[in-house]
Design a protein that fits this description.
Strand content of chain B: 35-45%
Strand content of chain A: 25-35%
CATH topology of the largest domain in chain A: Gyrase A, domain 2
CATH topology of chain B: OB fold (Dihydrolipoamide Acetyltransferase, E2P)
CATH architecture of the largest domain in chain A: 2-Layer Sandwich
Largest interface: A-B, 16 and 14 residues
Helix content of chain B: 10-25%
Shape of chain B: globular
CATH superfamily of chain B: RNA polymerase II/Efflux pump adaptor protein, barrel-sandwich hybrid domain
Number of domains of chain B: 1
Number of strands of chain B: 10
Order of helices and strands of chain A: HEEHEEHEEEHEEHEEEHEHHEEEEEE
CATH class of the largest domain in chain A: Alpha Beta
Oligomer: heterodimer
CATH superfamily of the largest domain in chain A: Probable tRNA modification gtpase trme, domain 1
Number of domains of chain A: 2
């Protein structure tokens, strides 16, 4: 059975084209992916991301538990702060990537990918043995609305939210009198908010945001533009760029892993060894040098030899070029500026390795 | 007579139009373009190449994905819409006047047209 978010009816009314995504019937586009993409880069867009998972972790051993399942040091996570994390298996491969928020002394919120909720919960339950911790999957009770773009903060302020909060923080607040947990995070590379709201208020919140957002040029944005936006920002998509056979070091996520964390965690041996000795494959950004488009699973060549494979690829509406993320052999000659080839329909097409992100991120807000 | 009364459509959403001069124009139906969304790239064949009925003769890329386009009847390519190379978005505006793909001279038997549908029947099939 395909699941529907509480905003499903709204999407239909708005004329969205619907698709199945991770078991959910979701809007892929309302008008045009390129138009929606540009709206988020230029003004503000509204996304229904209620398919994502919300798991509350609490109890005396909540900190100990989280520190066991992620490479990040949750003991350094302050109240109302958020941190990007991964959920490695014992080999360092990734079961999921997550955002963890500290909501109270012994209470945390874990946001996980819709496609991975079951795997995440299974893994968490297997890891809680002997610990005094409650794992409470509240995904079915909450809707999640993302408001993203340079005008997101102005809109939220107009709707009564106290926007005096830095990026990667979460605060309880009210938007037009509706109680929300407002997190200054997103998946677009732009400034913005993700509002966690109880299901029964989600439709009212959705309508109010579109109504107040009119003067800001707001548009509803589907999963299609969500994907092109995150690709320009070179943000990983689980299932494409991350999987159980890829470690965070290979995925270019070493920046997120503390080298001095004392606690043991799943996969620590592998991850620490890779941090020290290096890895055999690495994630790179590609810019196609012609009009062709690299897609998921296309092969990458260098000097006639297969060196890897594209994991995400598509158009960059902002650059007017086609871009991709690919895993390639980690050797010195293959670096920024190197021209490699992508096999597209039995022909090789030149692509240059470029720095990630492809488009400058503008999501760091310090207050 | 409107253009939709003159075309025949395939199950894989190509149309074919008799130019009444021995050539036929091939394109994608409006429905196909609507499903694909923003068109960003087309790979079209060169003049003179022959394809059998049902063979892939072109590839179309929307923002979302790449899709193959099949020739509705066997034929030799005699003209290619070169404008689409620089302006694939023309397909989102109109699939006939500006957004046609290729012109062909049929090389197969007349029977190859038998499983193609009139536009009205094609539309009904979509329901």
């Amino acid at each position: 059975m395909t699941k529907e978010t509480y905003l499903h009816e709204k999407h239909i009314q708005l004329g969205a084209k619907m698709v199945d995504f991770a078991g959910w019937h979701m809007p892929v586009q309302y008008t045009s992916i390129i138009e929606e993409h540009k709206t988020v880069r230029e003004s503000v867009g509204l996304f229904d991301v209620s398919h994502m998972g919300e798991v509350f972790v609490s109890g005396k051993d909540a900190l100990k538990f989280l520190n066991k399942i992620v490479p990040q040091d949750i003991s350094k996570l302050n109240y109302e702060k958020a941190v990007y994390c991964q959920l490695p298996n014992n080999q360092g491969g990734l079961i999921d990537d997550l955002i963890i928020y500290k909501l109270g002394i012994q209470t945390y919120l874990v946001i996980c990918n819709a496609s991975r909720i079951d795997e995440d919960l299974n893994w968490m339950v297997r890891n809680k043995r002997g610990l005094d911790v409650k794992i409470d999957n509240q995904s079915h009770n909450y809707s999640l609305l993302a408001i993203q773009g340079p005008k997101a903060a102005g809109l939220m302020q107009k709707m009564g939210l106290n926007t005096q909060q830095s990026s990667f923080t979460i605060k309880a607040g009210e938007v037009c009198g509706i109680k929300v947990l407002a997190s200054r995070t997103g998946y677009t590379g732009e400034d913005g908010f993700e509002l966690l709201v109880e299901n029964e208020f989600s439709e009212e919140l959705w309508d109010k945001i579109l109504e107040y957002g009119k003067e800001f040029g707001i548009k509803p944005i589907g999963l299609g533009a969500r994907d092109t936006l995150r690709l320009e920002a070179a943000l990983h998509l689980y299932g494409n760029d991350l999987d159980e056979n890829t470690t965070p070091v290979e995925a270019g996520l070493s920046w997120s892993i503390p080298k001095d964390k004392k606690d043991e965690y799943n996969g620590k041996n592998v991850i620490m060894k890779q941090l020290q000795d290096g890895v055999e494959k690495k994630l790179v950004g590609l810019k196609m040098l012609d009009k062709s488009i690299a897609r998921h699973e296309y092969e990458v060549f260098y000097n006639g030899e297969k060196i890897g494979q594209v994991t995400s690829g598509g158009v960059s509406p902002i650059l007017g070029a086609n871009i991709a993320l690919a895993y390639v052999k980690n050797i010195k000659e293959i670096c920024t500026g190197t021209v490699v080839q992508v096999m597209i329909r039995e022909k090789l097409h030149d692509a240059e390795i470029v720095k990630r992100p492809f488009v400058q991120k503008r999501n760091k807000i310090t207050i | 007579m409107s253009i939709t009364e003159k075309i025949l459509c395939s199950k894989s959403h190509e149309y074919i139009l008799d130019n009444e001069n021995g050539t036929y124009t091939v394109g994608l139906t409006e429905y196909a373009i609507e499903q694909l969304g923003d068109i960003v790239f087309l790979e079209l064949p060169e003049n003179g190449i022959e394809f059998k009925k049902g063979e892939v003769f072109a590839t179309i890329e929307s923002v979302k994905a790449a899709s193959e386009i099949y020739l509705p009847v066997s034929g030799k390519i005699v003209d290619v819409n070169e404008q689409l190379a620089d302006a694939p978005e023309l397909l989102n505006e109109d699939v006939y006047e500006k957004g046609w793909l290729v012109k062909i001279e049929p090389t197969g038997s007349a029977a190859e047209f038998n499983d193609l549908m009139e536009y009205e029947d094609y539309k009904e099939e979509l329901q």
